[in-house]
Prior knowledge:
Layout: H1 5-24, H2 42-49, H3 60-81, E1 84-87, H4 96-104, E2 113-114, E3 121-124, H5 132-141, H6 150-159, H7 196-203, H8 210-221, H9 252-270, H10 281-293, H11 301-309, H12 320-329, H13 333-348, H14 358-372
Parallel strand pairs: 1-3
Antiparallel strand pairs: 2-3
Helix pairs in contact: 2-10, 9-11, 13-14
Amino acid sequence: xxxxxxxxxxxxxxxxxxxxxxxxxxxxxxxxxxxxxxxxxxxxxxxxxxxxxxxxxxxxxxxxxxxxxxxxxxxxxxxxxxxxxxxxxxxxxxxxxxxxxxxxxxxxxxxxxxxxxxxxxxxxxxxxxxxxxxxxxxxxxxxxxxxxxxxxxxxxxxxxxxxxxxxxxxxxxxxxxxxxxxxxxxxxxxxxxxxxxxxxxxxxxxxxxxxxxxxxxxxxxxxxxxxxxxxxxxxxxxxxxxxxxxxxxxxxxxxxxxxxxxxxxxxxxxxxxxxxxxxxxxxxxxxxxxxxxxxxxxxxxxxxxxxxxxxxxxxxxxxxxxxxxxxxxxxxxxxxxxxxxxxxxxxxxxxxxxxxxxxxxxxxxxxxxxxxxxx
Length: 375
């Protein structure tokens, strides 16, 4: 859910074409897209829970965003059908590491290899023996079975090639070259040192992506600033090093700042591509729930959204008459705020897949309130 917008748009178009062509050709093919659970998405983890953005020693993203959603889908298919075969585009010549991985799981004399994790699951790698130039020859010279224009894919990779790299291999004629050096990942990826493909796309004329690249760079720069981090991790473990540097999850102030920046960039981007959403409505709801559970009720996601987009959406479901009655009933203004917070916890308790107990949430909030306002 944080793919490079250019790739996301391309993949969505291709899948639509595959679905349409399968129906027209009466083929038993269906298209399903796997998504991470709403509480596991990138923005739910970073802005909601305050996870530091990934690096080589803390890569929560690979497991939560990529492996887990598809593994869950595969498991369900195995239960329904007994076994599954996964087609992947891995090649021996991509890297020595990839070659070792493919060979390690090969079954001698068989086309299929065993999946390293999932039982009754096999892998078929139809292009594993092909060279890069052969892949681009197929893409450029052979029409797509579902009728999609492969020139679009070629142009994306060509535009995303690094400035110092020229596509050297002519594979069909002077206009068809090999442009396989580009690599597309998440536009938010902070594990790589530099996002060369997004930089090259911007230099090729996709100027509206520049705010995304700058935001990604700021995520890296601000990751380890002590002022942006709490003194404890989410499990309560102390996270301060010998120098006094804070290494816990992100503070609520920094999470608010990130959400404001992200929504501002989304608004700017939508002026060029109205279909692009950098964060979904479901994620915004999940973030609000996580903030509530962290005991933060002052600034809401709704407040920030209204501020950025200039809207005046109501924050809660309590009507005017109910609010007036509640205020009159509460002699202490702090009690009115507490009741509002407890109602917020109750309203949102069923929206996430992982349902923490409402009783625990309420008891925690009451405990904090009593500590802050010793009665």
